[in-house]
Each structure stands twice: as structure tokens, then as C-alpha cells.
Write a structure and sequence with these properties.
Shape: globular
Order of helices and strands: EEHEEEHHEHHEHHEHEHHEHEH
Structural class: alpha/beta
Protein name: Diguanylate cyclase
Radius of gyration: 20 Å
Domain EAL: 24-279
Strand content: 15-25%
Bound molecules: ligand C2E, magnesium ion
Number of helices: 12
Keywords: Membrane, Transmembrane, Transmembrane helix
Number of strands: 11
Organism: Actinoplanes awajinensis subsp. mycoplanecinus
Length: 286
């Protein structure tokens, strides 16, 4: 067991703590070169309109294909990247790549309504002075209509923060959509709706999980849907895994759904296939 002296204080590290700290230090170091070494990629999860289950959008989700560990989940590295600030560069890469992909899809399906592409933005990114310019540039370079892009922010990222509120207003000014992700999980969800210029509420997966068995879950889901419609916001239910959940959330008034029931996050080529299947379906006489 190692003991180290720092600033006149004795700090005791247990072996386990030390191992965890150095594993994290390795991850941090490896993240600095992961962009240039092309180790990040985006997968896309379909978002469907619940009324007809047509594909109307996708959410871009980052993956880290690590040379020795294989796929590292964003749940593992995004929080660390947020702490170190590396999320700014990683998030910029994700934004640019998602916009490039969105433009490619638009070119593949000329004359067809574009998919909305959702990009997650961490609190740290929202407070980065360059974010709004980055978004404007990504739209311009790819000739992407702003409404094709939906920026997803979590409640905790935007709580009571002047800088992030200004960034959100500027993003709305560009014409991009703004979704409040994981909605319902933070302490002050409701008050936030008064000041946060969002266009969309994404009900957190935790409320969908046991919606058919736990009364409280469905009470929250109902309230969020009613609030969205009262405030003229779009509503998305995340984490739908069964047809029962789909039916329930549709009956509660949710406009859009996302979850393993339709598809897990998939590589971009698979989205093209889903899109084609969708168009063929609409070409069939009813
Ligand atoms: P999120 O933005 O809330 O994304 C939804 C997460 O729920 C994704 O996990 C998705 O795979 C998962 N999910 C979707 N449907 C279902 C379902 O039916 N059942 C279950 N069990 N899970 C479902 P993923 O891809 O692991 O991403 C986790 C989180 O990492 C995201 O949560 C987001 O907060 C963050 N993240 C991912 N990509 C990025 C990124 O490019 N930038 C930033 N800043 N954060 C990202
Ligand atoms: Mg999200
Ligand atoms: Mg979410
Ligand atoms: Mg989430």
C-alpha cells in the first residue's frame, strides 16, 4: 500500500484505488490520440414517428474502437472526457462527422424528406465559446438545412447556467432543434422548461422501463407528455423495448419513439437499408 506526501498532507491510497486511478490515466492519455488515429466512430439509432412507425430521425452515438480493449462504451469514457475537457475535441469531431453523414444520406435520397440527426452535446461543450460557430460551420460546409440537426443536451448540463442558456438561444437562432435528453431525471426538470429554449423533450429510458407495472413511472410519463403538448414541444420516448411499451407511450401522446424494439444503434449503411425499406413500404398501395 503506497502512501504519498502532497502539500503537507498524507494521502493514503489503497491498492485498488491506485489501480483505478492509473487505469483512468491511461485512458486519458489514449483519448488524446484516438481522434487522429481514427478510433472513434458513430453508430445511429432510428427514431420513429409513433403514429405510423416511419423512420423520421436518428441519434448519433459515439463508439471508441480501442486497439486493445475493443469497443469502449461512451458511458465509460464520456464522463472522463468531460472532466478533462477532452470532450470539446471529441464532441467537435462527432458533430462534424454526423453532419457529413447527414449530407451523404440527403444526397442518396434526393427529393425525400431528410432525417433529423441528433447529436449529443455535453455541458462542457455547451459552455465552449466555439460551439455555436462549430455548429454553423458544420451546417454550412455540408449544405445542411438547420432543421435536420437536433442538438441533445441533458438537464444537468444546462441547470442554472447563464453561458449554456446563451449558447442554446444562439443555437435556436441558427434554426437547429434542441432536445432535452434524459428528461425527468434531474431535480429541477420543471423549472428548467421556463428558461430553456428547447424544441423537444426526450423522456428518460428509466420511466419507460417498467411503465406497464410501476404506477409512478407511468404517472411521470403521462405528465411529461402532457407538458410537452401544452408547451408545444415535440416528445420522444427513449428506451422502448416491447410492443406493449410502444402502445402505452403512443396512447399517452408521445409523438416519437426510440429503442431496441425498432433497432439498436447501427452503422450508417444499415440506416440506408432501413430507409429504403421504409420508402418501399410507403410506395405500396394501402
Ligand atoms: P443518450 O444520449 O441518452 O443515448 C441513449 C442511450 O440509450 C444509448 O446508449 C442507446 O444505445 C441506449 N438505448 C437506446 N434504446 C435503448 C433500449 O431500448 N434499451 C436500452 N437498455 N438502452 C437503449 P449509448 O450509445 O451507450 O450512449 C450512452 C450515453 O453516452 C448517451 O446517452 C449520451 O449521454 C452519451 N453519448 C453517446 N455519444 C455521445 C457523443 O457523441 N457526445 C456526447 N457528449 N455524449 C455521447
Ligand atoms: Mg441523447
Ligand atoms: Mg437519452
Ligand atoms: Mg441517457
Amino acid at each position: 500500500e503506497a502512501k504519498r506526501r502532497g502539500k503537507g498532507m498524507w494521502v493514503a491510497y489503497t491498492g485498488e484505488m491506485g489501480a483505478r486511478i492509473s487505469a483512468e490515466a491511461v485512458l486519458i492519455r489514449e483519448m488524446t490520440t484516438a481522434i487522429e488515429e481514427n478510433q472513434f466512430s458513430l453508430v445511429y439509432q432510428p427514431i420513429v414517428r409513433l403514429s405510423d412507425e416511419r423512420l423520421t430521425g436518428v441519434e448519433a452515438l459515439i463508439r471508441w474502437n480501442h486497439p486493445t480493449r475493443g469497443m469502449v462504451s461512451p458511458v465509460e469514457f464520456i464522463p472522463i472526457a468531460e472532466r478533462t475537457g477532452q470532450i470539446v475535441a471529441i464532441g467537435r469531431w462527432a458533430l462534424q462527422e454526423a453532419c457529413r453523414q447527414a449530407a451523404e444520406w440527403r444526397a442518396e435520397f434526393p427529393g425525400v424528406d431528410s432525417l433529423t440527426v441528433g447529436v449529443n452535446v455535453a455541458g462542457r461543450q455547451l459552455r465552449d465559446v466555439q460551439l455555436v460557430d462549430d455548429v454553423a460551420a458544420a451546417l454550412a460546409i455540408n449544405k445542411l438545412p438547420p432543421a435536420c440537426l437536433s442538438i441533445e443536451v441533458t438537464e444537468t448540463a444546462v441547470l442554472d447556467d447563464e453561458a449554456s442558456n446563451e449558447a442554446m438561444l444562439a443555437l435556436r437562432g441558427l434554426g437547429v432543434k434542441l432536445a432535452l435528453d434524459d428528461f425527468g431525471t434531474a431535480a429541477s426538470s420543471l423549472g428548467l422548461l421556463l428558461t430553456c429554449p428547447v424544441t423537444t423533450l426526450k423522456l428518460d429510458r428509466s420511466f419507460v422501463e417498467s411503465i406497464n407495472t410501476v404506477g409512478r413511472q407511468s404517472a411521470v410519463a403521462t405528465a411529461v407528455s402532457q407538458m410537452a403538448s401544452a408547451l408545444a414541444l415535440a416528445s420522444v420516448a427513449e428506451g422502448i423495448e416491447t410492443s406493449e411499451q410502444r402502445d402505452l407511450l403512443r396512447s399517452l401522446g408521445y409523438q416519437y419513439g426510440q429503442g431496441y424494439y425498432w433497432s439498436r444503434p447501427v452503422p450508417p449503411a444499415r440506416i440506408v437499408e432501413l430507409r429504403l425499406a421504409d420508402l418501399q413500404r410507403s410506395a405500396q398501395p394501402a
